Amino acid sequence: MDEEYDVIVLGTGLTECILSGLLSVNGMKVLHMDRNDYYGGASASLNLNQLFEQYGNGSPPESLGSSRDYNVDIVPKFIMAGGLLVKMLVHANVTKYLEFLVIEGSYVQKGNKINKVPATEKEALNSNLMGLLEKRRFKKMLEFISNWDKSNPKSQKGIDIYTDPMSAVFSKFSLSDGTQDLAGHAIALNRDDEYKNKPAVETFERVKLYFESLARYQKSPYLYPLYGLGELPQAFARLSAIYGGTYMLNKPIDEIVYEDGVFAGVRSGEEVAKARFVVGDPSYFPEKCESTGKVVRVVCILSHPIPNTNNSPSTQIIIPYSQCNRSSDIYVTLVSSSHKVAPNGKYVAIVSTTVETNNPEAECQPGIALLGSVDQKFVLISDTFAPSSDGKEDKVFISSSFDATSHFETTCEDVLDLYERITGEPLDLTPKESDNNNEN
User: Fold this and answer.
1) Which of 21, 42, 134, 370 is most buried as measured by Cβ atoms within 10 A of its Cβ?
2) pLDDT at 2
């Protein structure tokens, strides 16, 4: 360890491992350290014993099955099939280390009932989410989003999506509040209604991403890796190792060394590693971060699929905030033995949302109520942080905490931003000809 590197990476979360891999491919000498004895950091997948040790009381009951059959995500998220993470996986050529399944379906709550978000034209026609006339108006809006062209005034219908808010688009097509919830929350995946007052282009891009992802596999726009999300950082760690990166797990970080206020190295025990800059998650630099709130996640082990989801072994349910008197949405994810994350006959459901009160678990109750009987429950409350500076002066580049969203798009946007700040150049994710057949 007592030598010089180009970069030291602290923590093996997904953001850190992606950057470690990309910087190693760029020819940088990387030292990657983690105080934990496992990969993944906040994006780790835990076995049952680890889950009880960190978040439960006592030992797991035998009725839950073997500990080693579980790979429970601390941060539940799905992967948009056409999104940034897939592009990064293909760009880095690490899909060969992973295997994915398509999530069976996506649902949204309206009133006291959950409804499937239509994945085909037939499902749309038969959906109870809206009446016939509303379906026509909604279809026209989706066609408008698809066809809007900056260079073709006829396609714009008087709407400038770069300046006009999304609320103006909804008004133009006279969409009801329920249909706006479907478009803005179940499809565009906004967490609250602030998007309505922002330029419509942001929601247009989100809607297009949803349908581009859906078009790939039809059932839903979401993918999930076998053996849990903890496989993702490990795949990028392998990439870094292939290009000469050095990994040290279970390594205490005793001191971040600075010279004249600029990062110079990391001390572990009597050893000091020096580098030009450091990348790490907020837990390694609490004095350089600011709080952005809290996220609550309730992990539930079930012996059955979620009721009213067609016995799907995997699904997502979105409860728009307007349906439960909140300021932000509630997300429910379900995976099972099909994904190698639980024993046969067991399912892992996770309810998550942004904390708004002094009783975070109660805030998840609308989602928990959809699950039916629960065998075991764990409540995880996480503080979220963002760096207080961009790192360019002190050479300390810090990632942001995982938010409550059900996908990795915001995480990948953080990766892109960090990469450009570190290297001075944007990451080019344009597919190469050799990538054409790499996606799973």
Assistant:
1) 21
2) 64
d(CA 402, CA 413): 12
First to last CA, the chain: 38
Q: What's the burial of 189, exposed, middle or buried (CB within 10 Å: 0-12/13-18/19+)?
A: buried
The SS3 assignment for 236 reads helix
pLDDT in tens, 316-363: 999 999 999 999 999 999 999 999 999 999 999 999 999 999 999 999
The one-letter amino acid at 396: V
The answer for 269, left when phi > 0, alpha when psi is -120 to 50, beta otherwise, is left
Q: How confident is the model over 77-91, as a mean pLDDT?
A: 95
Measured distance CA(49)–CA(72) in Å, rounded: 11
| 311-to-104, 303, 304, 347 alpha-carbon distances in Å | 10, 12, 8, 11
Of 132, 140, 177, nearest to 159 (Cα)? 140
Which tokens sit at 416?
């892109």
Question: Count of alpha carbons within 13 Å of 117, Cβ hemisphere only?
Answer: 31
Q: 231 with 98: CB under 8 angstroms?
A: yes
Q: How far apart are CA 374 and CA 333, in angstroms?
A: 14
Angstrom distance (rounded) from CA 189 to CA 318: 9
> In degrees, to the nearest 5, what angle opens at C-alpha 413 toward C-alphas 409 and 417?
170
Tokens of 403: 């938010």
pLDDT of 155 higher than 90: no
Helix (H, G, I), strand (E, B) or coil at 405: coil
d(CA 101, CA 66): 23
- Decide if 266 contacts 257 (C-beta within 8 A): yes
Q: Which two tokens stand for residue 299?
A: 């992990």
Task: Write out pLDDT tens, residues 1-42.
Answer: 668 999 999 999 999 999 999 999 999 999 999 999 888 988
Q: pTM for this one?
A: 0.91
Rounded to an integer, the average pLDDT of 138-147 is 91
| d(C-alpha 69, C-alpha 92), whole Å | 29
Q: State the Cα–Cα distance between residues 275 and 282, nearest whole angstrom.
A: 19
The yes-or-no verdict on residue 438 having pLDDT over 60 is no
Residue 259 half-sphere exposure, CB side, CA atoms within 13 Å? 7
